[in-house]
Amino acid sequence: MEGILLLNKPKGMTSHDCVFKVRKLIKMKKVGHTGTLDPDVTGVLPICIGRATKIVEYITATEKTYEGEVTIGFSTTTEDASGEIVSKKNIDRVINRSEIEKVLQSMCGELVQTPPMFSAVKVNGKRLYEYARQGIEVERPSRTIFIKEFVLLDERETFEGNQVSFKFRVTCSKGTYVRTLAVMIGEALGYPSHMSSLIRTASGKYTLDQCLTFEEIEEKIKGSNIEESLQSIESALFHLPKFAINDTLAVKVLNGAVLEIPTELKDVLDEPICIIDQNDKCIAIYAQHQSKPHLMKPIKVLVTTQ
């Protein structure tokens, strides 16, 4: 069995919990997830099975879309609803729709973020949440992310009350902490805030309506048709240029050969290339040779035999 199983991740489970459960259900060890989703977050979690585990990093690198809710009025230790309250401030004015939309627009494009203490980022070989659980605050490396779209999903013109919540949709690059975006929104409006709910609605080209719940996966396994629900490796590499080769050259590729760069690829080698065989299968991923720019070399050979 090989391919990408699109899981509608339930609330309360870590991404690792989901992988462990899929391993037990399909009775395979070669299973991996494509980027961590917090336990409180639900939605699209592509799970790679078999040979597809070799392309996890390419799925992780694609942009993601989320729909969530920000609550303005208090902040938490974890920046989401699961944490303890850190600071609280009642909203003492009317917040206009135009003000919120202006804040969201100002965050589009390149943005520098500092990962929250309760996150899986490693500092000195230890994950930040391990420091946080011990009450230790450490210096965290900032990262540059990219926000493609940030939209308010609320029809109200004004927002008022001791606390205010509103929904949003954001499309962003990998490595974005959406709960930190929620905190940044509050800061821009002058109040402590946190992310009160979040669902990932898309990961790359994969969308929530394609995903299966664990209950649906179990039903398909009982009916022996789970493989029909797997997405192909090729579909996951949709964003990479493709280059089709004949069977003779395929033998060299499968043996990890360094190749001359074809004329038609000279303008696209700033990113990896999918090498496609005569059966339209991606058999390897190549990139330009670092010291010999007229050559390309394999960075992933996805099959060893045809």
Helical residue percent band: 10-25%
- Indicate the CATH topology of the largest domain: Pseudouridine synthase
CATH architecture of the largest domain: 2-Layer Sandwich
When the domains are counted, the total is 3
Structural class of the helix and strand makeup? alpha+beta
Poorly predicted segments: none
Multimeric state: single chain
For the CA atoms, what is the radius of gyration?
22 Å
Give the helix tally: 8
Tell me the total number of β-strands: 20
Shape: globular
Largest sheet: 9 strands, mixed
Mean pLDDT: 89
Compressed to H and E, one letter per element, the order equals: EHEEHEEEEHEEEHEEEHEEHHEHEEEE
Query: What's the CATH class of the largest domain, please?
Result: Alpha Beta
CATH superfamily of the largest domain: Pseudouridine synthase
Span between N and C termini? 16 Å
Summarize the structure in words:
The chain is globular and about 75 Å long. It has 3 domains: 3-61 and 204-236, 2-Layer Sandwich (Pseudouridine synthase); 64-202, Pseudouridine synthase, CATH 3.30.2350.10; 242-301, PUA domain (Archaeosine Trna-guanine Transglycosylase, Chain: A, domain 4). With 306 residues, it is of the alpha+beta class. The strands form 5 sheets. Strands 1, 2, 3, 4, 8, 11, 13, 14 and 15 form a 9-stranded mixed sheet that branches. The chain is built from 8 helices and 20 strands.
Provide key terms for this protein:
single chain; 306 residues; alpha+beta; Pseudouridine synthase; Archaeosine Trna-guanine Transglycosylase, Chain: A, domain 4; 3 domains; globular; PsdUridine_synth_cat_dom_sf; PsdUridine_synth_N; tRNA pseudouridine(55) synthase activity
